[in-house]
Specification:
Elements (H helix, E strand, L loop, with lengths): L6 H4 L2 E4 L5 H10 L5 E5 H17 L3 E8 L3 H11 L6 E5 L4 H18 L5 E5 L7 H6 L7 H14 L4 E3 L5 H8 L4 E4 L19 H7 L3 E4 L1 H4 L4 H10 L1
Parallel strand pairs: 1-2, 1-8, 2-3, 3-4, 4-5, 5-6, 6-7, 7-8
Helix pairs in contact: 4-5, 7-8
The structure holds orotidine-5'-monophosphate.
Catalytic activity: orotidine 5'-phosphate + H(+) = UMP + CO2
Protein name: Orotidine 5'-phosphate decarboxylase
Function: Catalyzes the decarboxylation of orotidine 5'-monophosphate (OMP) to uridine 5'-monophosphate (UMP).
């Protein structure tokens, strides 16, 4: 029988609701009552964001709204003013929008939340998607930096632009933690057990334990839990492995 994971660890796991319907989303939420932090990404947001987000809040779940914004500063700021209404806990933007776009997003979020009298979402910059390999960075994107150095530069840009933290693979967490300090939030997708490695689009992965040891504050886990025959059991097993 698997061990029950301590609540303190369970609260640091964000489960990705990458499902196409509101019914499928709340089936998962009901199946794993110990999970308190859920991620709504593009798929579910586009289908039913205006229903899912208020319902998650009603159930007192914490919410990571992962829309990975990427646009010019004026458009991003306008989107952030609208998104602030949802009162989510975390929100993502691509760090490659650059310093003015990152600052515009953070300012718009803070001003709108203040107006609404709610805590602003913490804004996280996506450094480099965990589905990228070093080879793709060099040969497809033609970035003339080693992958860890590129990601470090993106994290430093996010920090200089007043973001609260970044999304990075756990493989880069220790490097970013050392450069950006203890208060900078590191949220890490790309979580796989050794037996699950190399079976899908995730390229830069680590186990949950190793990711926490590397300095991650939160882990984002999707398919290893949501596509398992028994999601609640998979949640327990992943964190006690
Ligand atoms: O921003 C994200 O959450 C994200 C960034 C990234 O670099 N890689 C990444 O996988 N994600 C998200 O994290 C989740 C990972 O899901 P699984 O690969 O199924 O565990 C997905 O919802 C992705 O959209």
């Amino acid at each position: 029988m698997s061990k029950i994971i301590p609540q303190m660890i369970a609260e640091k796991i964000i489960i990705a609701l990458d499902v196409p319907t509101i019914e499928a989303a709340f089936r998962l939420v009901d199946q794993i009552p110990q999970a308190s932090f859920w991620k709504v990404g593009l798929e579910l947001f586009l289908k039913a964001g205006h229903e899912v987000l208020p319902e998650l809040k009603k159930q007192q779940k914490r919410i990571f709204l992962d829309l990975k914004l990427h646009d010019i500063p004026n458009t991003i700021a306008a989107a952030c003013r609208i998104l602030a209404d949802y009162g989510v806990d975390l929100l993502t933007i691509h760090t490659t929008v650059g310093r003015s776009g990152l600052k515009a997003a953070q300012t718009a979020l803070k001003e709108s939340s203040q107006r609404l009298g709610i805590a602003p979402a913490k804004l996280l910059g996506v450094t480099l998607l965990t589905s990228f390999s070093p080879r793709e960075l060099a040969f497809d994107l033609k970035i003339p930096l080693e992958l860890p150095d590129y990601i470090l530069q993106m994290a430093l840009l996010a920090q200089k632009s007043s973001l609260d933290g970044v999304i990075c693979s756990p493989q880069e967490a220790a490097l970013i933690r050392q450069a950006c300090g203890e208060d900078f939030l590191l949220v890490c997708p790309g979580i796989r057990l050794p037996s699950q490695k190399g079976k899908d689009d995730q390229q830069r992965t680590m186990t949950p334990q190793a990711a926490f040891q590397a300095g991650a504050n939160y882990l984002v886990i999707g398919r290893p839990i949501t596509q398992a025959p028994d999601p609640a059991q998979a949640f327990q097993e992943l964190l006690t492995a």
